[in-house]
Amino acid sequence: MISDRPVVTGMGCLSAGGAGLESAWASMMAGVVSCGPPSRFQAAPALQSPIFEVSAGAWARSLIVPEAELPRTLCVEFFLSALDEALAMAGLGVDSLRGRRIGVSVGTTVGCTLNDEDFYRAFKKGAEPDLAAIRRFLDHNPAPYVSRSLDLRGPVSTINNACASGTDAVGQALEWIEEGLCEIVIAGGTDEVSRIPYLGFSSLLNTSGRPCRPFDAGRDGLNLGEGAGVLIIEARASAERRGVRPVARLGGYGCSADAHHMTAPHPGGAGLERALRQALNGRDPADISFVNAHGTATVLNDAIEGTTLARLFGSGVRVVGTKGYTGHALGAAGALEAVFTVQGLRTGTLPATAGFRDADPACAVIPTREATVRMDWLTACARTAGPSPPNRGRMLTLSSPAAAGSFAPTRPAHG
Q1: Which of 182, 328, 381, 414 is catalytic?
Q2: Does 255 qualify as catalytic in the annotation?
Q3: Given 140, 260, 294, 414, the catalytic residue
Q4: Residue spans of beta strands (DSSP E) within 294-368
């Protein structure tokens, strides 16, 4: 039964929109857009595209995991910051976790793999650079790092599925609980922007020189972003034993691959629609109150996503795009959007889609133009997508704990 599905008992986030969920949501509801030139690295002026960067010092050092011998990567720091918030909301103290069969499922795309350019240059020239850079990279694989640091005994997985990584991590948590592998999973995504992926996306000619404009007729590309989103996914029986009220219920997860092209999505959105229908898990599409779309502001993604959403849910479906506040946060994108979807359900509010001004008939949907407040929503969807082959679709369904429903993050395959 849907009412017996795993629940969300805690969540936390960190992004350019703010440090912590309440701060980020207030900023988004006020329409604040915080993007600009990268501050941690330099690129050729001709390639300048603004990014949504987490401000230096915007997050507190983790209280639950002491600093290790090697300095932590930003990718891990971001995740731990969001995890502190999520565990506090879930009412889970660190000491109560140690030694328990608790899973950790984390999505990331770039992580810190491309940060050590000086090491790679020296190695390529035949030098023998200090291996501390490699040890730091290996020691900071996000999921094993968290599991090891908290002395957890459940399943552990770091997922690297491009922009769908965070959504896949939440979907995997759902499956682990339903298969009885554990009763609690720390799930989410984290990523940081570094020079090489920044230049890589610029070379693909899919970034914009201005703040991105999801679903807008004048959209011309994405902005990269960074941060982390964490959800505590828990078996309903476990939450009841602890006396914790869930903030949402996970109703389904969808995953598909259309293998249409190495990077481009199927023009008819075939993979996305299959993922959406799987995640709905038999639920009537008319029950969905709103969709938190992938909305990258690239020409292809928004047109194919919009027409697919309109075909399945109707052209009047309420759609919000949050990348105008966070940028495209790569492996963290799906997790952040899952957190924001739950927050919309909890509060009955949605922000305006930052950057959207003029409707594009090719998109077939019109996202939120202004902040929406005091709505009684029960069920919503969130979707993500990624460019790596074969083209994959991801989707989760989430619902308010008051509903016997579901929450849905989804994902097709074009960044």
Answers
A1: 328
A2: no
A3: 294
A4: 319-321
